[in-house]
Structure formats: C-alpha cells, structure tokens
Give the backbone structure.
Amino acid sequence: MSQASKRQSLEKSTISIVLPVYNEVAVLRSLYEQVVDSLVPTRCEVELVFVDDGSTDGSAELLDELARNDSMVHVLHLSRNFGHQAALHAGLSNATGDAIVVMDSDMQDAPSCLVEFVTKWQEGFDVVYAIREKRKEGFVKRTLFYAFYRVLRMLSTTQMPHDAGNFGLIDRRVLDNLLKMGEYDRYYAGLRSWVGFRQTGVVVERLARHDLQPRVSFLGLCSLAKTALFSFSSAPLGLFYGIAVLSLIVCIAFTGFTLYHKCVTGLAIPGWTSSIMIASFFGALNALGISVLGEYVVRIYDQVRNRPKFIVADYVNYRSEGSTRQSAEDALEETFAEVEALRTIIAPSTCADDFTSQPIGT
C-alpha cells in the first residue's frame, strides 16, 4: 500500500473519545464543541463516549440532550458512582473506534492536543501519551505529582514515562489487549505502558480547573497512587523482607554484646527505657508490615470475588446495551434473515413435486 493510499485509509477511520463525567455540567457543552471542532482537520469519523459516573448536578440530563441532537454522541449512565478508573473502563469497553482517546471532562486536558495525537497515530504509533511537563495547579499538588511519577518508575518493574497520566490515544489493537486483562483494581496509565507496542509522548500543558472544587479528592488521589504502587511493584514486600533481615542482624549483635558484657563484667546493662523503646519500634514495624501484607490480601480478595467493575443503568444513543451484545444480536438477526430467504427460495411444494416426479425403482 502506498503512503498516499495508507493516509487516505486512516482518514476514513473512526476516532473514539472516551470521557468519564462526574458533576461537570458547567463545562460539558463547551467541552463537546471544542472536541468536535478540534478533530475537523483530521477528516476522521468521530465518536464521543460520555460515561456518567453517578453525577448529581444535571450532567446526566445535559448528556442526554447532546445525544438526542447528535448521533455521534453516546452516553453510558452507571448505576452509581464507581470511581474514575471504573468509568474509564466502561467507556473503553463500549468504544468502537479504530483509535481511542482518553481524556478528562473537566477541561484540564486541552482538546487542541487531539490533532497532534491523531497525527502521531497516522504516522504509525500505537500509543500516544501526553507528557504533562507544565501543570497549572498548586505548588503542593505539583510537587506530589512530580514525586509520585518518579517513585513509581523507580519501584515498578514496568518502565513508565514521567508525568504521563490517562490523557492520550491508543490504537484498537492496544485496546483489545487492555480489555483482556482481568484486574479488578486498574491503573490505566500503567496498563497502557505494560502492553508495549510502539509508543511516543507529546508534551502538553495541564490546564487549570474551571472551578476550585476538584472532583477527585486528595484521599482519592492517594488511593489511586496506592493502586498503582501495589499493581506494578512488589517493592513494599521486598522492603520489609530487607528490614526483617536487618532487624535479625541487629538483634543478634545486641544479644551478643549483652552476653559478652555480662560475662566479662558480671553486670547487666542497665536501661529499661532503651529496651522498651526498641521493643516499641519493632512492634510498630511489625504492624506496618502486616498492613502492607493486608493490602495485597484485600486486593486478592477483591479479585477472586469477581464482581463487575461497573454496572451500566442506561445506554443512550446505542442501538442496544453494549457493543458485544449488539454484535451478537446483529449476527442472530442476519441468521434469521438468511433462513427466511432460503424458505422463500426452496418452497415445500417444490420439494414435494420433485419427490413425486422421480420414478421409483429405476
């Protein structure tokens, strides 16, 4: 295939934009307009997949209105608030495009970056992720994000790019492999790095929120960071293994020194305070180690319960509930149509005439 024909084929492709939504009614209409306008130069078909993650501020009603007025807008209403990563997974599971873009719906991910993502994809990259080198957020939050990405990369067995969150584009074959993964606790940016393929980064600026009320709390961000760490690193267990070995060495050395002092001088080392402090320190260390082990046990427990990651209460502008179910129903309808066509071609009377007209015993 020539470069020109390949380019023409890619321009006929469909780009799915997956947007988890939680109480963002103030910016949804503007977001919709900017996303659609920004993708016009690509000359690709566009599909917008909004996932309403239990919004209570009128976002659901506005999304339904957008879907009624535009056939390329699809809305999934989850039965409750399942969290950002679950809503993201719901959108990815129902996206049908040849390339899929993941972005936040709070306008912090600039729609103007989408053209560059699509251009990189058309150049042959399977994954295009945004590198957020500049962030219009508070100093403390910027510092914590900076530290998180570097600590995670240092401890993880998967090489993850610095400052790369969810915002980015993936090819259909990358998504197909992501959807095969059965993790209950998902860290999308880490899974995207883990699958491999040909990846590249695009430097972007993380914009400021339209209001001063972030939808993901500080505790929510800490929970996501913990999920990332426990999903992609065994360092917490390795750390406490090292501490246990070091503690054993210290205890043996201290015991030997105490016995030696007792045998040589005949006097015991005084100091109940120091002994209690040492015992308390190692007791707290043991409790912390058990907590780390408990985190892994809880995640295993969540995994084996095999509960659904999300529940969709309503599909808007979908022909039926979910792409998988839709394809199965389409296949069934096609089968019935073929059977009816055969019935009209091969009439029972014709078959009877054929049998009676045949000579018997010849």
